[in-house]
Amino acid sequence: MEIDWFTTGAQIVNFLILIGLLKKFLYRPIINAMAARERNLVEQRQALLDQRAQAESLKQQYEASLQGLHREQEKVLSEARARAEAEKTERLQHLDDEIRQKKNRFTEQMRQEQQELGTAVGRAIAEKALWLGGKILTGLADQPLEQRIVEHFLRQLSNLPGPEQAALGQSRTVTVITSFPVDETLRQRIKDRLNNAADAIQFEQDARLICGIALEAGGRSWEWNIERYLAELDADLLKPADHEQLT
Questions:
Q1: Are 137 and 145 in contact (CB under 8 A)?
Q2: How far apart are the C-alpha atoms of 165 and 196, rounded to whole Å?
């Protein structure tokens, strides 16, 4: 079999031309498309990485903000609890002070009422006892009780120390105060005793002396009455009440 070199050469040339055409019009675009696609994939991957890094940064910022919000919330709650506790303590202290003050006022009121009651009882007992005593003395003696009180008082004036006698003697006006009406006989006896001591003698009546007599002259006073005995009786009657503990 003979080889047709011309035909063979033509076929080889055609094959080479075909390869060149394929390389130029088919292979090169495929290579370029693959390269472009690879570049696109790289760019997309980088974009994804950037987006992921941005998302991670946003996540960290969100978590940091959330933690800051939690801390601020806890701080606000802690301050609110502290203020509530302080207000509660202040109100309790105020309530305790108010209760203590009311208790003290009640205790003082009870003490005063007991003292007033004891004074009233003591005074009533003493007045009753004096009335009975005066009645008994009047019935047993020739002279009434008022005359005995005046005579006793005049004896006391006679026994005054020297400076007091001098002070009484220098007084020109004398006021005699009694808890009972003074008849003319008793007035004359008092005037006779004070004749050398005063130019004017005034007589007054004051039931507060409680069966007593007093003399005022020159800014000074001398008296004899049951008031001091009532005071001692009041003190004796009030001793149990003063020592009683109120709760």
A1: yes
A2: 11
Taking the C-alpha atoms of residue 3 and residue 65, their distance in angstroms, rounded to an integer, is 88
Q: How confident is the model at residue 247 (pLDDT cuts 50, 70, 90)?
A: very low
| Residues facing 201 on adjacent strands | 174
Q: What is the β-pairing status of strands 220-224 and 213-217?
A: antiparallel
Residue 217 near residue 178, CB atoms below 8 Å: no
Task: Give the single-character DSSP code of 207.
Answer: G
CA–CA distance from 134 to each of 9, 42, 61, 143, 184 (Å)?
Answer: 181, 135, 107, 11, 20
Which pLDDT band holds residue 30 (cuts at 50, 70, 90)?
confident
Q: Which residue in this structure is represented by tokens 């007599």?
A: 213
Backbone CA torsion sign across 37, 43, 49, 51:
negative
Which class for 93: exposed (0-12), middle (13-18), buried (19 or more C-beta within 10 A)? exposed
| Integer Cα distance of 204 and 182 in angstroms | 9
- Integer Cα distance of 171 and 218 in angstroms: 5
| 154 touches 213 (CB < 8 A) | no
Q: What is the mean pLDDT of residues 60-73?
A: 87
Whether the pLDDT of residue 39 is over 70: the answer is: yes
Q: In this structure, are residues 172 and 217 in contact, taking their beta carbons and an 8 Å threshold?
A: no
Give the number of other CB atoms < 10 A from CB of residue 175. Answer: 16
Residue 194: the pLDDT is 76
